[in-house]
Batch of 2 targets.
Target 1
Amino acid sequence: MTITLERDGKIAILTLNRPERMNAFIRAMHDDLASALDDLEASPPHVLILTGAGRGFCAGQDLGERYAQIQAGETIHLGASLSETYNRNLTRLAALPSLVISAVNGVAAGAGVGLAMIGDLIMASQKAQFMLAFNKVGLGPDAGVSLHLPQRIGIQRALGLVLTGKPLDAATAKEWGLVWEVTPPEDLLPQAKALAASLAEGSLAAQLSSKRLMRQVSPDLATTLTLEAAGQEPLGLSDFYTQAVVAFSTKAK
Ligand code: LHQ
């Protein structure tokens, strides 16, 4: 399974499980995430922890999957692809009547940063890095990044990270307000679980009300996701994107 879901009382842990590809998203992973969401919606935990297996959190879209499509001569429609996969699942994840803690164990890139920011609180290992890699492959932000990144760190830093693609280390991410807590790598999950356990002792109704009020913005996430998908569609058809995918996927292996 590319996604695993474990439960421990009022806490659930959802782990992205493609460690050999830094947990980059392929189509099957979206389907597995949708199944995990069925389970979570049927019985919502008080606190959900999101994390990644192995040394990465999530490298965003799997460029190998796109490369295969390019090789097969397929036209890549990123707008439709986003609407059917990321947007649907991220909207469901954000709508869970649960608190969400992202435990970012390693690199988060592209849509992986978007996923992390679905978390109400982000905890990061000292080894975590946040890479807004979109422009590097000729794309703009998606997966809610254009909404959540400026909201968390301000427009200047957000735009700077997106335009330069410069990786943000965990300590700076905390200083900039993207991350709540930075821990040694081995302490990340234990500390995320301890935080989850303490939150799970509180009033869920009060916490959900706080989350709803403090995360509400205009335009909302669903509108943003739709706008992002529309923006991404023509970029996915560009030569720049095709060449970036080919270059990444054919690098000396
Ligand atoms: C990968 C990937 C990857 C495939 C590592 N794909 N294999 C969203 C939705 C819809 C449409 C379009 O786009 C989007 C937005 C996006 O998400 S765009 C951003 C896509 N992601 C990236 O551009 C990140 C690409 N990856 C990297 O820059 C590096 O791999 C990072 C910085 C993540 C990790 O670097 P390292 O720590 O040096 O590890 P590595 O590069 O050796 O990666 C380990 C393996 O994972 C490696 O495979 P290999 O067979 O050589 O061991 C990579 O090829 C593979 N991998 N990311 N996105």
Note: The radius of gyration is 17 Å.
Target 2
Amino acid sequence: MGSSHGKAILLGEHAVVYGAPALAIPVPGLTVTATAQLLPASAELGEFTFTMTGSGSERVVMQTGDGLRLLASEFKKTAGITDSPQISVRISCGIPPGRGLGSSAACARAVVLALADLFDRRLDAGTVFDLVQISEGVAHGRASGIDTLATGSPTPVLLSDGVAREPKMRFDSLFVIGDSGAASLTKHAVELLQRRFTGKPGAQAEFVHRSEALTRDAVQDLAQGRIADFGARMTACHELLGSVGLSTDRIDALVDAALAAGSPGAKISGGGLGGCMIALADEPHRAAEIVTRLHKAGAERTWVVPTGRFLFHGC
Ligand code: PMV
């Protein structure tokens, strides 16, 4: 068996594909479990069979099916498996797909770990990363690795200059995630941005530069305990992503609702063109108010991710 969890990006999505830093948190309440099993040899079945359960699992299969097959055959090479056993992998995915919550990376990670377990192989973190990235490359078109890292980390992840580390967090907070109810493909969002940049000289450099400055400043805010400033950078990042066409009316309405409820900052989270938004809350009562307002503004679902001392608050 192998398991993994969801993630949410706080700052830097899309720009991270072009080498800028990005910051993400794990969403441990959204989980994926994969179970791999050897099957008796049968001519009708391919080498690998993937079965998915969970809401919207057809969409996960659509997004990740080819990538999972690729990573499974690469796993065989890495693990030195030379014969062709028939393998069935069942994936139970509790992460809603197409919402920027890391369903594709989490499924891929769970599959890699399940295959390693089945063949009794110990894979180091770098090998797991490389295998998951094979599948992510198919799902995103170009994958930065931030989802691959955050879906395997128990703590927040800062990916900067190709290196992942845990950022210093000097304030305790809660993050409220609101689902707009509209699914989208990360690949389409990544391609949309590529096309936009192709037509406008200098636009890519400007976008990446502004995102990089926001993320670097936000990391300082986090380390210095400046929650209001951190929130303001999140909202500025939302405006930046909106300015290149990645937000939607529904997401904008949810961001406005969170800010009206007293959130220090809110933004779209992940690939965009639908999916989820994320709002910062300084206290549990504020998180509860944001949840209420998000539902009134049309959120299909919400999740609260506590950090620091609020982890033990029972919210
Ligand atoms: O999987 P999503 O929709 O959260 O997108 C991940 C973030 C991107 O920057 C859009 C893509 C990437 O690989 O970094």
Note: Residues 254 and 294 are 6 Å apart (CA to CA).
